Amino acid sequence: MLFKRSSAARGAVTQADPNTPLVSMQGIEKVFPQGGGQAFVLRRIALDITPGEFVSIMGPSGAGKSTLLHIMGMHDHAWTGEYRLLGQPIHALAARDRAALQKRTIGFVFQAYHLLDDLTVYENIELPLSYRDVPRSERQSIVADVLDRFGMVAKKDLFPNQLSGGQQQLVGVARAVVANPAVILADEPTGNLHSSQAQEIMELFKRLNDQGTTIVQVTHSEANAAYGSRVIRLKDGYIQAS
Fold it and tell me: What is the phi/psi pair of residue 8, to 5°?
């Protein structure tokens, strides 16, 4: 095991039914105003992702890859269609309920790391646990375990600007998985890394997926996509293959 979970951390997350799609989208569309009309970014998206999959979303620049991921992660709410996450109708939930579900169920990994500069490595990793109301004493135990298993104990008191890009992304992945989310969403997670650092991150994702973590990544890299179990290809806002 890469790392273990305490019972409280597990209890803070809705568990996925392996017989039910974790993500289910039907008729998802996204438009931007353009001139006197509108331009479609996503068209008629129909997509199911089951628990335990490792899915890569690929396509040319402007195809709608990151937009689809941010809708999935509930960062973007200006779309039409139906989207269910763990059976919950995201399209029908109030903003407060969407935010609560997001915090309980989704871990994010970003190309630009998005670590908080004024927090240490330890504090950055601990942050998602505070969103899930995990008791402080248990947070300490969980973070200590993650630091040990990710090989970052010696760096726990450092700030992001004292780390290399690969180390920052490693912290980003640790932060994403620390609270045992139902799914990890990764947007070009190796885009700012050297090839050896990128390989390390992708091998970490593969180990996490082998242990049952569902992962959805946006990537331009065929090599990165090869770590997963399925590729969804977008072009001009449409799914071309899945």
Answer: -65, -40
pLDDT (tens digit per residue) in 98-122: 999 998 899 999 888 789 999 999 9
d(CA 197, CA 51): 27
Q: Which two tokens stand for residue 91?
A: 């399209």
Domain boundaries, the chain: 7-241
Identify whether the C-beta of residue 88 lies closer than 8 Å to the C-beta of residue 101: yes
Return the amino acid letter for 68. L
What is the residue-averaged pLDDT of the chain?
A: 88
Look up the pTM and report it.
Answer: 0.86
Q: Is residue 58 helix, strand or coil?
A: strand
Summarize pLDDT for 199-236 with one digit per residue, the tens.
988 998 999 999 999 999 999 999 999 999 999 999 99
For residues 21 and 90, the answer to whether their CB atoms sit within 8 Å is no
Which of the 8 DSSP states describes residue 242?
-
DSSP 2: -
* 68 and 40 Cβ atoms separated by less than 8 Å: no
Q: Which residues of the chain have pLDDT under 50?
A: 1, 3-14
CATH class of the 7-241 domain in this structure? alpha beta
